[in-house]
Design brief:
The chain has about 425 residues and is α/β, with parallel strands linked by helices. The protein has two domains: about 210 residues, Glycogen Phosphorylase B (Rossmann fold); about 180 residues, Rossmann fold, CATH 3.40.50. It is about 40% helix and about 15% strand. It is built from 15 helices and 13 strands. Helix 2 links the parallel strand 2 and strand 3. The longest helix is centred in the last third of the chain and has 18 residues. The chain is globular. It starts with a strand and ends with a helix. The structure holds uridine-5'-diphosphate. The site of uridine-5'-diphosphate has 19 residues, from helix 2 and helix 11.
Length: about 425
C-alpha cells in the first residue's frame, strides 16, 4: 500500500526579512497572523525537491509556522508510471496533443485512492493541494470539514480538452482555486472562488542570499567557467517547454559575434520528471565537443549555492520557455541584478518588463538580437539588472506571497 510521506522543513523567521522586504507587507503579515494563530494547514504535492513548487514550499511553510500556524507538508507516493502519466497530463494541460486511455484513468484513480487512505477527517482546517498529481485525492479521501484549495502552478489557459475535462471533474471538491494569473483558469472551471497569487523567491535562501567569498570561489570551480569572458546561462529543468536546444542555437549564433562566449545550461532532475534524462542526453549531443558550453546538473554537485553563483556571474540569464507557469528563474536572476531574456509566455511577462529589466522574446531570432544587445552594451545591461532587482523586491519576494496566502486563509476562516 502506498503511503503519503511527510516532508521536513528547516526553521525560518519572519523577523529576518525585516530590512529586506517591504515593511508594510511584514506588518500586514503580523496582523493577519494574530487572527490565524493555531490554524491547521496541510500542503500536499508530488515532490519535495526539484522544480518551482518544492522550492516555494521550503520557504513558505517554515514562515507560515513562524506566524503561529500549524503546518504540515506531505508528498504523495506513486510508481514511475504514474509520474509518466502526470507528466503527460502536465504537457497536455499546457496544450499538447494526447489522449487518455482507460488504463490511464485506472492508474490515476488507483494511486489517488491509495494515497487518500491515510487522510483523516478534520485533521486540518485548510488543505492546499498543488498541481494535477494529487488533485483527485478529495474524490476518495475523507477530509471531513477541512476547506480544500487547489493551487495550480501551470498555465492551463489553452489546454487539451480531454485532459482538461478529466482534471475539471475533480475540481468541484475544492472551495477555492489559486492560479498565477486568473486567465489561467479556463472558462467552465468547477471551482467558484478563484484567487490570483503569483509565486515568489526567498531572498534569504541559499539560492538567493549573498554568498561569502569562499562559497563563491568554490561554486566557480564547480561551474568551471571563465569569468573574464562573456557568459549566458539558462537554469531550468531539462524539459522541451523550456526549449534548451533553442538556447544552444542562440549561443551558436552569438558565438560568431562574441569571441570566447560561454554557455551554461544548468538543469536539475526532479523525481517526478521522467522526461528529463532524454532531454539531457539530447542536449549533450546537440552541444557536441564545445568546451565553452557547460551542461551541468545536480549530479555534478550543482546545488543552490552554485545556481546562485551562476545567476550572479552571467551577463544575461535566459529563460527561453515556449510555455511557462511562472519561471522563478527570472525573479532569481533579477534579484541578483542580472538582466533577463524570457519567452513571452505564461508568467514571464509579469516579471520581465520589455526594455526595462530585460526583453521578452517570441523566437530564436529575437533571443539572438536582444541577448546580443545586452552583451554589447554593458551600461544598458547594468541598468536593466538594477531595475530587475527593484521589480523582484517589490513584487516577487516570499513575504508578499505569504501575505496573500494568509489573506486567503482569513477569507476561508
Ligand atoms: N533549479 C535548480 N537547479 C537546476 C534547475 C532549476 O535549482 O538545475 C531551480 C530554479 O533555480 C528554480 C526552480 O528550480 O528555483 C525552477 O522553477 P521554475 O518556476 O523556473 O520552473 P519549473 O521547474 O517550476 O517549471
Amino acid at each position: 500500500m502506498r503511503h503519503i510521506k511527510t516532508v521536513k522543513v528547516i526553521q525560518k523567521k519572519l523577523h529576518d526579512y525585516k530590512g529586506i522586504a517591504d515593511g508594510q507587507v511584514i506588518e500586514s503579515i503580523t496582523e493577519l497572523s494574530r487572527k490565524l494563530r493555531g490554524l491547521r494547514v496541510l500542503h500536499i504535492n508530488a515532490t519535495a525537491y526539484g522544480g518551482g513548487v518544492a522550492e516555494i514550499l521550503h520557504t513558505l511553510i517554515p514562515l507560515m509556522k513562524d506566524c503561529g500556524l500549524e503546518v504540515d507538508w506531505k508528498t504523495i507516493e506513486a510508481p514511475g508510471e504514474f509520474f509518466d502519466l502526470t507528466k503527460r497530463m502536465h504537457n497536455a494541460l499546457q496544450g499538447k496533443e494526447d489522449s487518455i486511455s482507460v488504463n490511464d484513468r485506472d492508474l490515476f484513480e488507483r494511486v489517488s485512492k491509495e494515497n487518500s487512505a491515510f487522510i483523516k477527517p478534520d485533521e486540518y482546517d485548510v488543505v492546499i493541494i498543488h498541481d494535477p498529481q494529487p488533485v483527485a485525492l478529495p474524490a476518495y479521501a475523507n477530509f471531513g470539514s477541512s476547506k480544500l484549495v487547489w493551487r495550480c502552478h501551470i498555465d492551463t489557459s489553452s489546454p487539451n480538452p480531454v485532459f482538461w475535462n478529466f482534471l475539471n471533474s475533480f475540481l468541484s471538491y475544492y472551495r477555492a482555486g489559486i492560479f498565477t494569473l486568473l486567465s489561467y483558469a479556463k472558462e467552465g472551471i468547477s471551482i467558484e472562488s478563484l484567487y490570483a497569487i503569483a509565486p515568489s523567491i526567498d531572498p534569504l535562501s541559499n539560492k538567493n542570499r549573498d554568498l561569502t567569498e569562499a562559497e563563491f570561489g568554490s561554486a566557480l570551480k564547480k561551474l568551471g567557467v571563465d569569468t573574464s569572458k562573456p557568459l549566458i546561462a539558462q537554469v531550468s529543468r531539462f524539459d522541451p517547454w523550456k526549449d534548451p536546444l533553442g538556447v544552444v542555437d542562440v549561443y551558436k549564433s552569438l558565438k560568431k559575434q562574441f569571441a570566447g562566449l560561454q554557455l551554461l545550461m544548468i538543469g536539475s532532475m526532479a523525481s517526478d520528471d521522467p522526461e528529463g534524462w532524454k532531454i539531457y542526453e539530447d542536449l549533450l549531443r546537440y552541444t557536441g565537443m564545445d568546451y565553452d558550453v557547460k551542461v551541468l546538473s545536480n549530479f555534478q554537485g550543482i546545488g543552490d549555492i552554485e545556481v546562485n553563483a551562476s545567476q550572479r556571474i552571467s551577463d544575461v540569464v535566459i529563460q527561453k520557455s515556449l510555455r511557462e507557469g511562472f519561471a522563478l528563474t527570472m525573479s532569481e536572476a533579477m534579484w541578483k541584478r542580472t538582466p533577463v531574456i524570457g519567452g513571452n509566455v505564461g508568467g514571464i511577462p509579469l516579471q520581465v518588463h520589455h526594455g526595462v529589466n530585460g526583453y521578452l522574446v517570441n523566437s530564436i531570432e529575437e533571443t539572438i538580437e536582444y541577448t546580443g544587445k545586452l552583451l554589447e552594451d554593458r551600461a544598458l545591461a547594468t541598468d536593466m539588472g538594477n531595475k530587475g532587482h527593484e521589480i523582484a523586491k517589490r513584487d516577487f519576494l516570499t513575504t508578499r506571497h505569504l501575505k496573500e496566502y494568509l489573506e486567503l486563509f482569513s477569507d476561508l476562516a
